[in-house]
Design goal:
By secondary structure, this protein is an alpha+beta fold. The protein is 24% helix and 28% strand. 14% of the residues are buried.
Amino acid sequence: MLHVWTMRPIVGILPDEPTADERDQLLKLLLDFNAPHTSHIAERTNLGILLRRPDTAEIVGGLYASDEYNWLFIRYLIVPEALRGQGLGARLMAEAERVARERGYLGIFLDTFDFQARPFYLKLGFQLIGELDGDAQTPRRFFLKKVLTKQA
C-alpha cells in the first residue's frame, strides 16, 4: 500500500517587522535553495569607505556596499553638500571599483532616485538598466550597472 504524506498548509501572521533571527532563517532557506545554482560566497564581507572629519573623526559621509552574487551592490553613497564638487564621490566610487576588481566581481550595481545622482553615475560609466515610476509622493527610481573588465 502506498502512503502519501501531505503537509497541511501552515498560515501564520508575522509581525510588521521580523526579528533578526527570523530574517536570518529566511535568508538561510533562500541561500540553501540557491546554492546548487550559484557560486555565491557567503563569507565575503561588506564594504565600507568612510569620510571623516579630520579634527574629530566624526563620520560625515561615505559609501556602504554588499556582496550580491558576484556583484558589488552600492547600498549607500553620501557626500555632504558642503563637500560636493571636490571629487570625493568619484574617489569613493573609484575605491569601491578597485575593491570590486580585486575581489573578482562581475560588476557593480546600484539604484538612485530622480532627485539624487543619476547623471553622476552615468558620467562614471554606469548604464541605466531599469526604472520604477513614481507619483506625487514617490520619486522615480533608477537602476544602474557597470560591468567590470579584467583591466581597469
